[in-house]
């Protein structure tokens, strides 16, 4: 899985000001190709077909999924009761109320592989669920907008975007087999063109595989 963590100062802002991440449906507050968005004190994240588009200060980082993916429209899950109201500065009237959700789900982003993004303790986490028979080697992602991408000594992906440092934590993978959690060996691989994929050890292909943050 992928867990996005902004470096020191930005992480403190997220944790302090955004304990629960809320995902908005786009009803005109973003460009039409954005289906949902996440706003925090440190960044904005747009959920689009086949990509995640971060805006950090004046900088942009795009995580574009590659390979034989299905360009599915993401969907909001777990509706939050209260709604966001946007006030037009020029006119004292409310714009459309914006539905909010606790998570965003890409159903069958790849054949037999789902992706769900949600908040945990103020951090954004995105989990892949590989269904029985599906090939996790389908998962590929390219970073666009990063000045430098490398795998750190601890197995994290480290990205430099202008003066900001972002980390994608070393993944954890497991299966639930007869109620028992069984760990699966996993690590990142980085291709010649900053293409991220997973190297995964042996596992039971008749049971779902979860690629999950530590």
Q: How would you describe what is shown here?
A:
This protein is mostly beta strands. It has one domain. The chain is 5% helix and 57% strand. The protein has one helix and 19 strands. Strand 5 and strand 6 form a beta hairpin. It starts with a strand and ends with a strand.
Task: Write a compact overview of the structure shown.
The protein has 214 residues and is mainly beta. The protein is 5% helix and 57% strand. It has one helix and 19 strands.
Strand content: over 45%
Shape type: globular
Low-confidence segments: 3-19
Mean pLDDT: 83
Helix content: under 10%
Biggest sheet statistics: 19 strands, antiparallel
- In total, the number of strands is 19
Question: What structural category characterises the helix and strand content?
Answer: mainly beta
Element-level helix/strand string: EHEEEEEEEEEEEEEEEEEE
> What is the end-to-end distance?
9 Å
Total discrete domains: 1
Individual helix count: 1
Rg for CA atoms: 18 Å
Describe the secondary-structure layout:
Layout: E1 2-6, H1 8-17, E2 23-25, E3 36-39, E4 43-48, E5 51-56, E6 59-65, E7 75-87, E8 94-110, E9 113-120, E10 123-130, E11 141-144, E12 148-151, E13 157-161, E14 164-168, E15 172-177, E16 180-184, E17 186-190, E18 195-200, E19 209-212
Antiparallel strand pairs: 1-10, 1-14, 2-3, 2-8, 3-4, 4-5, 5-6, 6-11, 7-8, 8-9, 9-10, 10-19, 11-18, 12-13, 13-14, 15-16, 15-19, 17-18
């Amino acid at each position: 899985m992928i867990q996005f963590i902004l470096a020191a100062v930005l992480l403190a802002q997220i944790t302090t000001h955004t304990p629960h991440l809320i995902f908005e449906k786009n009803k005109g507050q973003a460009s039409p190709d954005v289906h949902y968005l996440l706003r925090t004190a440190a960044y904005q994240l747009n959920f689009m077909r086949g990509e995640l588009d971060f805006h950090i200060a004046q900088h942009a980082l795009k995580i574009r999924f590659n390979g034989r993916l299905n360009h599915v429209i993401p969907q909001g899950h777990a509706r939050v009761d209260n709604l966001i109201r946007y006030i037009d500065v020029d006119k004292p009237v409310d714009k459309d109320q914006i539905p909010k959700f606790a998570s965003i789900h890409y159903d069958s982003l790849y054949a037999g592989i789902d992706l769900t993004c949600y908040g945990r303790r103020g951090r954004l986490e995105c989990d892949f669920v590989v269904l029985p028979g599906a090939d996790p080697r389908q998962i590929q992602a390219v970073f666009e907008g990063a000045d430098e991408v490398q795998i750190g000594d601890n197995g994290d992906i480290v990205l430099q975007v202008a003066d900001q440092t972002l980390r994608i934590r070393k993944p954890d993978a497991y299966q639930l087999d007869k109620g028992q959690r069984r760990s699966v060996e996993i690590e990142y691989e980085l291709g010649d063109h900053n293409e991220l994929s997973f190297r995964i050890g042996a596992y039971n292909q008749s049971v779902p595989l979860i690629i999950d943050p530590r």
